[in-house]
Batch of 2 targets.
Target 1
Amino acid sequence: MRAEGTPSAATRGATGVRVAPAAAARPAGDRPPTSMSTRRHRAFYMFASPWIIGFLLLTIVPMVYALWLSLTTYDGISPHWRFIGLANYRELFADPVTWDALGRAGLFALTSVPLSIVAGLGLAVLINRPLRARALFRTLLYLPAVVPPVGAGLAFKSLFDQNSGAANGVLNIFGIDALGWLADPYARYVLLMTVLWAAGNVMIISLAGLQDVPRELHEAARIDGAGAWRTFRSVTVPLLSPVLLFQTVTGVIASVQTIMPLLLAAEPTTGGVTAIPQSNYMYMMHVFAEYFALGRYGYASALLWVLFVLILVVTGLIFRFTSGVVFYNVDPEAKK
Amino acid sequence: MHTRADGPLSRRRFLALSAAGVTAAGAALNGCALPVAGGVGGSGETVTLMVKAEDISPELIRQAQRGLGIRIVTVRYDITKLIAMLTSGNPPDLVRGVGAVDTPYYAARDVAEELDPYFAASTVLKADDLDPVNDLWRYDGRTQGKGPRYGMVKDFSQDSMYWYNTAHFDEAGIAYPPTSEPVTYEEWLDRAERLTRRRNGQTIVFGGSYNGLYEATNLSTLTAAAGGSLFDDDLARIDFTTPEARKALGWYIDYCRTRVGPSAIQPDPNAWDGPTYQAGRMAMSNSGYWLGGMINTDEKLAKVSRLAPAPVFAGGARVSPCQGGTGFWMPRKARNKDAAWRVFEWFFGEAPAKARAGGGWGIPSLKSLRPLMPAEHDHQRRVLAAQEAELEHFSVISFTPYITAEGFKALFNQVAPAAMKGEISVDTLAGRLNSTINEQLDRGKEQVG
């Protein structure tokens, strides 16, 4: 409400430039109209706030708490825990079990990520073709990816049990003696199979990427005399490269954090910590054992922080070394 | 910070407000003291039990609420949640625990309530009626089995006793082990090897399973049977290189190497012997009386099953401990201790205890309830006779307060499979186990103080 005789909200000054009225000239209680920009800001933060608050509460606060824990000997309930500075980190870097576990996780990432990307892409290329019952094939191939990990883990465990599993039944048909699939040295291969079995996730993303490749580019390549393989290599793969990069980064992060199939395929116990084959004793299993079996909250938190930093570094390196081969339709450097 | 009520919400201002919000929310969460679903609802006759689903059925809870007039809420047992509740000062009123391994751990950390005054005043749970197995829940700061009581066993087994299936012995032409006198561990393993049947790399029949409940208690028991002790007097060091511990470890590694039963290098997908034994694929199982609960429900299996005493080592002592002793303990900071004790009395001395005693899934932990153990059929009377004779050889074997059984298992399984596969010698294994486990014991000792 504006008092009588006061200037309008926007008047022209002596130079004719539109200026805002002086605040002093406004009576108390009078509010200036909210600009469009302010309203937009307000709306943005209002709608984004649930996520931002959740991020702060559920990600940043626990991370800072874990960082604090990593500097202590805290074990949950013992009365004499203390601040030890970087001792957990020093121990971690000198601990051969940690390095072995990290090495196994790295090796697993190096094998499982390329294999699952190639498998997923291969399947995507297959079901992107005009086939009869294509929808059915897509559904069937994607089905393993929607099976809950617990169900999948238990199914694989039954399938590969040495004495009653179907896998050894098949081997016996061919006169081959049963193998101890769930023990060393075969346990790592079973783990790899569980990952490849669920390649439907990778397939769906690759399929979406394939369908985004402009048809006219394929036609142009064909007119230029390129065969199917050359077209795939020189047209499809470059256009799919952002998708492949995404799958590589998320795949590496997921594979070094693998724990659920390890727990499920191992010998279960009353307390939850399992007798896991050495070849599957990977980094997150080590973290799990330190947290829940040994109660070393501080040391396990240090392990997680190191893993966090390692993932950041590896992700950065992947971006760095793929910058020359990833083709973006949209400039990734664009700010707006 | 100066802010304008009507100005645009700058990023800086928004983040500042968010940080304040986070702090306030954190304080609020802390104030709520981790109110888990179904947690304690303030003062009054409400008791929170942290249990596993199999410990107490919803029907039993309804009965308790009707009979005692106390509201009971349950929280699923989860060690992480328990620690969170203990550290936030809002623990459950009663917590399930495994007496053989949990008593020293919680008592030494001063988080468990001493229950002696409650037992002294109780008309339901009288001290002279308590089976000696309840000593698993006593700890005097140095020795398990002595000192104040911190909990009670709901029912138990002498877990080194073993069941055997006579049909497999008949098939292999091997004489049955006696049910009144123990065989030696060497004889047991020899029989297990002869009873094992394999075809095309698959084990059709496991000759015998001898894993115990935990590696830690199993190896402690084996060492005691060899005449020694796995831990030193103050329970702060472990030594696998003493002759007795070396003998025990060597025997267990032989058991694993010969693959006569499940182990870390030959995992059993069922996780326990029950289904394999019931399926007729296991000739012997060291599960103790407890397995009778399952065997009794299968008449054909019950008729061919025998319960035998715990084996001995030549020249060693005859020991037959309980490696579990699952029961409840009361956190020191529990809010409704008197009501919790009333539930405790009901659970361990009244209707649920009587029902458990008659079920055959364990020996009752009150001597007065022993007449309720199943003895209707011949096979039940036979089993009962073997069990009653074995009770004379019960003893408590102290476990260390400085590592959990799960921690022991995790460290053991990092090192031992190489020996089970014959890649390293038992002596090398003993040295490595000493090194890794003692390191953890040192940490535990420092934290307990």
Target 2
Amino acid sequence: MYQSKWRSLTNHIILILGSLFMILPVWIAFASSTHTREFLFQHGLQFLPGGHFFENYGNILFDESATKGRVTALQMLFNSMVLGLGFAIGKVIISMMAAYAIVYFRFRLAVPLFWVVFSTLLLPLEVRIVPSYEVVAQLGLLNSYTGLILPLIASATGTFFFRQFFRSVPDELLEAARLDGAGPWRFFIDILVPLSVTMIAAIFIIMFVVGWNQYLWPLLMTTDDKLYTIVIGIKQVYNSLYEGGQIPQFPKAFALTIMASIPPVLVVVIFQRMFIRGLVETEK
Amino acid sequence: MKRVQFGHSPVPYLFVAPQIIIIAIFFLWPAAQAVHQSFLLEDAFGMSSQFVWFRNFEDVLSSPSWLKSAGFTVVFSVLVAVLSIAISLFLAVRADEIIRGAKVYKTLLMWGYAVAPPVAGLLGIMMFNPLMGDLYILLNRIGLDFNHIQNGNDATFVVVLIAVWKQVSVNFIFFLSGLQGIPKSVTEAATLDCKSAERRFWTITFPLLAPTTFFLMVINLTYAFFETFGIIDVSTKGAPGGATATLVYKVYVDGFLGADMGGSSAQSVLLMIMVSILTVFQFRFIERKVHY
């Protein structure tokens, strides 16, 4: 393709500026997280890393008194991992099964059930947050992984992704499978699941990131520090920044934000192609 | 629907059961409760309640703080959607043209998708910290008299900036894949016919991207409505004086911190109606797109 030297140069300049816009805040946060709080307080945010990386990060990872809650960052990372994986696995399995039933079977309640599932798209958890909290409290599920994960799964986005995908699978496959005598279970396990592997992986990656990044729901239903996810931990540490009349713990807050971002960012960067494929194919 | 399907059997019921059970317990039940509560007036201790028809809705719709919050939500959502779409479209067009280093730029511009909104909120508010935030100091040094803690417009600027920063990467990914879906022959023919890159963009590329742009508009509005909760809660908490409280944030503040269940539920139901309009719109659009 024809391209002038000038156009190509401006392209690079614009893309470098765009990348800096995205990266700079995170870089400043990282550099600042490796200084002492006294140093930051006197000299402001830093562009170059200091010498307190191991001290600051080690402290917050393993020492319970370093975070406001009585929980280490390591425990918070573990909780986030449980939430991310539990949400992603649960969502993929449940929505794939439901989509299979909706696309491949003719049954009496199909239409009403489809509309029940569809209705969940209209009302995000944020909107029904107060009654959801009451329901989970009545079921005695506050401060449990079950109560953390299940209400988040009660939205049918995944079902629609799989429904869309299954509809694009050629009809001949089912005909052939039935000629070979395969029943509904055999067809699902031996043909449909292997055929959907890349789709499953893509949705899994997206859902893991969504689960890891949950905020409002975990904020409300986890009052026990031991169940804090790392994203919630950030708010707790930030709220306690100015307590006690001491110099604020800015490096600590920055260290937590860096740790909260590394796992989902790594997943997205490593599985870039699958992730983009999933995002673009599922949402359109 | 499929031309070929399995016949009658209990199997499909087993397959939809897990989803339907979870939806019934954690979606239908709370949703019904939200609608029910929106017609009730509870006393301060939640001991007794009275059925008051649409009074909660009348109260909400005539309350100055709700109207202020609704106004902010509209301004905020439109600003966030338009700005983040414009910036990412600009970047995506440039990234699509480039041959050398394209992969590096793509990675550098898309990872932001994975950052949690509250994380973005904290990063942003630290940059605007009056004690040491670089942007706070910079804006004041160039003589803008910037103060987001007391000035509502300045606070709006801060939350819009953070929300746009967080959203650029999502839009970038969609635009880039949209651009790469345009056949090479079309781009080449256009290049032969028209030397001006800018005219080529507005007459050929942008119309071809129109469905993507429209789709992103809906996605971005939904994002600004709901997912910015974490940004606002960590950065401004709706301050000063509710100037940066979105409607979703207000549902949370009134229901959980203010313990006004009826009012909060009425707000939820109103929001639900607004979102259903958006979603139905989006769903029809998606269905139409699938056919070509």
